Amino acid sequence: MRYYKLSYVLFTFLLIHTTIWAQEYYEEPNYAEEAFNLSEDVRRNAEFYIPSAPAFYLMGVTPDQVGRPGSVQDFKVDWRVKNYVLAPDLAIEAQPFWAFYYDRKGLDAYREASPFMKTLSTLSLSLGTAKMDGLNHLSYAAKISLFRERDPVDDPVLLDSMARTLKEMEWPYRQMIDSLQSMIDTLSDRQWKLELKEQVFNLKSEVKNMHHAQKQRLIEMEAAYLYNHWNSSGLDLAVGRVYTYNNDFDTLNFQKAGFGIWVNGAYRLGYRGLLSGVARLKQIGDNRDVMLGGSYRFGSHKFNFFGELVYEALENYSTNGFSPEELFASKFAPDLDNGWYQYQEGLQAISRWTLTWGGDFRLSSGILLNFAIRTKLDEKFRFMKLIPVANVTCLMR
After folding, report:
1. 152 phi/psi in degrees, rounded to 5
2. Longest dimension (CA), the chain
3. Residue 10 and residue 143 share a domain
4. For tag attachment on the chain, is the N or C end more exposed, with fewer CB atoms within 10 Å?
5. Residue 1's pLDDT is what?
6. Spatial separation of the C-alpha atoms in residues 133 and 325, rounded to whole Å
7. pLDDT of res. 41
8. 43 assigned to some structural domain
9. Number of helices and strands (H, E) in the chain?
10. Are 45 and 72 in contact (CB under 8 A)?
11. Whole-angstrom distance, CA of residue 223 vs CA of residue 158
């Protein structure tokens, strides 16, 4: 009997020190799978950024004209803020491939998908309305992410670190359970077997009770991951069309205004900086507008500030297309100066610069406030006007 007691004491002593070897076995597939399944709900609600709807970007009603690339996995609504209240102007956005396939199949299907299908899952469709410059606008747009430096839904680095964490938390307990069960098979004493079986039962209960702490730990790891990689590089491509309409009692009287195509990208600069750029082409009737811009952001996942400089070569411009009498009669009432009024003839292009300062503030995990002040400058950098712009973006979770 003393021999068994001594063996048990020595065996327990060795098991207590097995945590030192835990890191050598974190690669085991069962822990990677367990980390993947346990963190699925956490990663479904993970995104580096909540971008504005492409339909709003096309109409030019977003605070930032140099948009950040990014995608989300939820239905989304954007509102304009005018005169310190939410305006009726809004946009809705959704990702059909994600919503109708991967969201139903689960993240396992997404993890096993090809790179092409993962890219296709970022395709988003948006529809928006806005009244600006005295005109009612309706826009629809499609956007796809061509490049993402990191994917918070399925990042192997994040999953590997989660698997390591689970291994370090559970491995000593599971090793003790396996060893005690092996010892039970070698013992003949009934009392010892009962005591060891009770210890095995208690250890299994501790492992089950550990799941809440494990999930909380994974949530903390996800938050740290988003904090460290909020400014990941990316590249988006988008295209859309805009209509103008008269909101009369008996008819909407839709008219095609034009279309636009643009590409915007971002490059990570250190842990706090992000350099972004955009190139956009708009065709409105016979007139073509070109926009080029760059911005720098500094901050974190929760809030950041930006400054951007945008150059525009405009053919479709109000002061070219309207006479002073028409402007006086409020046929064209500029506010953002981005209206898609279609003139009947080609106009001579002018140049314009816009210097913008603003920021993003994440009110919660699913609500983002965008704000900015645009400084309009002419081709010689002479001041023209200041325009405050603000939007609220909400994920429908």
Report:
1. -65, -20
2. 109
3. no
4. N
5. 47
6. 16
7. 63
8. no
9. 12, 12
10. no
11. 11
The count of other CB atoms within 10 Å of the CB of residue 269 is 14
On whether both 286 and 304 belong to a single domain, the answer is yes
Residue 142 tokens, joined: 């499609």
Closest CA to 153 of 70, 85, 231, 235: 70
Query: What is the domain-level CATH number for residue 262?
Result: 2.40.160.40
Residues in the chain predicted with pLDDT less than 50, given as ranges, are: 1-11, 13-29, 249, 320-332
Rama region for 295: left / alpha / beta (φ>0; ψ in -120 to 50; rest): beta
Instruction: Kindly report the pTM of this predicted structure.
Output: 0.77
98 DSSP assignment: I
**Residue-range definition of the domain harbouring residue 187:** 2-38+156-228
How confident is the model at residue 13, as a pLDDT? 40
Question: Which regions of 154-253 does DSSP assign to beta strands (E)?
Answer: 234-245
Enumerate residues 6+ apart whose C-beta is below 8 A from 357. Answer: 305, 306, 307, 372, 373, 375
Answer yes or no: do 78 and 217 share one domain. no
Q: Which of 144, 114, 146 is nearest to 234 (CA)?
A: 146
User: What is the three-class DSSP state of 306?
Assistant: strand
Contacts of 67 (CB under 8 A, 6+ apart): 51, 52, 57, 236, 264, 276, 278
Q: Which two tokens stand for residue 13?
A: 């002593």
Residue 202: CB partners within 8 Å, gap ≥ 6?
Answer: none
Strands (E), the chain: 76-82, 85-94, 124-132, 135-148, 234-245, 254-269, 273-284, 287-299, 303-314, 350-364, 367-378, 383-395
**Gap between the Cα atoms of 12 and 7, Å rounded:** 9
